Amino acid sequence: MQTKLHLSFDTETKEIQFSTEVTDTLYQGGQATIDFRILGRDAIVPIERLVFGYSIYDVKYPEQSDELVIEEIFPKGNDVYVATDQNPLAFRNITLTPTHNYRIDNWYNYNQDVYKKSFSFTVGKTVQPYESWSWNDENLSWEAPIPMPTDTASRPQWVEQLGYWVVPDSGPDVEEGAPDYEIS
Are 118 and 143 in a shared domain? Predict the structure, then answer.
């Protein structure tokens, strides 16, 4: 699963909006994207004096202080924004820890006025590979109900219908008509 974070600033209402979306795609756990849009009344929004940024914190309540994960300011370097067509103005891929709680502090300096808002979110887990597997909060991964054998010549494969691991056997001594695996 991939977590998508959408942030927008409306130049008319001066509101900062935040939404999340979890997609059912095969991304590594903790993969997230973040995009920033500047909205306005017209199709093309003038933004000559816009600077904005964000900070993402891993929330460690209440026993520890929150840990800064990433922060950025836009535009980068000597770049200057002039106008936007309301498509994402900036886009980032970030890696966060699945199932952790995060806070994003977002701010916009627009026409020399500063607007700030914070939002909380949780990053999704990877796609569950099999119905019988359960999530391990300590290892942050899915685990089979039976540990995978490690003492085999070839890599075992989980067979959900059987509920156990099988080791493919493709050696020359396999009898014709015999199953193509060993039961572990």
Answer: no
